[in-house]
Amino acid sequence: MLPIDWNVAVKYAKLVLLAESIPPAGDDAALQAAITAAGYTYLDTLWANEIATEINPHAGEIVSYGFLALSPTKELVASIRGTDTVWEWIHDASFLMIPSQISGLAGLTEDGFTAIYRGLRTAQPDGSTSAVAAIKAYLTAGTATSVTVCGHSLGGALATLLTVDVALNTPCKSPVGYTYASPRAGDHIFAGSFNASIPANYRIVNRQDVVPQLPPILPLPYEHVNTKYELNPPKGKIQQNLLCMHHLTTYVWLMEQQPGATGSDQLNPECVG
């Protein structure tokens, strides 16, 4: 098991928090300024079809899901948000499996995640380009030399798919993944294929968060990818409800309580125990 630097994990979580701040209609000047303040240069906004639920039907709507950014050392970061409708999605989801849609990747993946991932793209002057194709273009041009993919919740599942797609189908064969509260993205064959391709993946899980326990391992053989780093909330510090245990801000706070971490971010006020 690779050691984890919690300060680095917090850094990428905060980039995902920036992805969550993007307006549905796309990027804005404030976001780009925040990305610059974090030490990166904004490249592209990531778009996809909004998740559809019975309570909040967004089928067909194209909304922002995150961004691509570049560091001074030519590290390209893909940051992918979760969704505000995650609990409605869990209620409505059937968690069916379909054959992997990623070239070179064996196994089955969850159909809802796969559908969104296949539509994950950037807006280019000549039309839409898939996220992996955009990353490949930056690598081929020499603009970027390494790739890190990070995501929270539903965005964690999308980040899992994008990380292995980058490894199998771009010049970067060793991308790094950071996911927070990610559900299972596929079956045991998919997980084995992912693990063989991605040696450095940090799957960070709050022990009391429900989302990483989904989809269930029965009746279909869903399995998590490597490597799990578990956070254990201290008693009485966080409100014991589903949303508070799932918030990315809660994950940041918990990571900053780990040995060697130096941050001092606060919980959401409504989540303080």
Report on the structure:
With 273 residues, the chain is an alpha/beta fold. The protein has a single domain (6-235), classed as Alpha/Beta hydrolase fold, catalytic domain (Rossmann fold). It contains 9 helices and 13 strands. The strands form 3 sheets. The chain has a 9-stranded mixed sheet, sandwiched between helices. Helix 1 runs antiparallel to helix 9 (248-255). The longest helix has 16 residues, at 154-169. The radius of gyration is 17 Å and the shape is globular. The model has no long low-confidence stretch (mean pLDDT 90).
SSE map:
Blueprint: H1 6-20, H2 29-37, E1 41-49, E2 62-70, E3 75-80, H3 86-92, E4 97-99, E5 108-110, H4 111-118, E6 121-124, E7 127-130, H5 131-140, E8 146-152, H6 154-169, E9 176-180, E10 186-187, H7 188-197, E11 201-206, E12 222-223, E13 228-231, H8 242-246, H9 248-255
Parallel strand pairs: 3-8, 8-9, 9-11, 11-13
Antiparallel strand pairs: 1-2, 1-6, 2-3, 4-5, 6-7, 10-12
Helix pairs in contact: 1-9, 4-6, 5-6
Question: In summary, what is this structure?
Answer:
This protein is an alpha/beta fold and 273 residues long. It has helices spanning 6-20, 29-37, 86-92, 111-118, 131-140, 154-169, 188-197, 242-246, 248-255, and strands spanning 41-49, 62-70, 75-80, 97-99, 108-110, 121-124, 127-130, 146-152, 176-180, 186-187, 201-206, 222-223, 228-231.
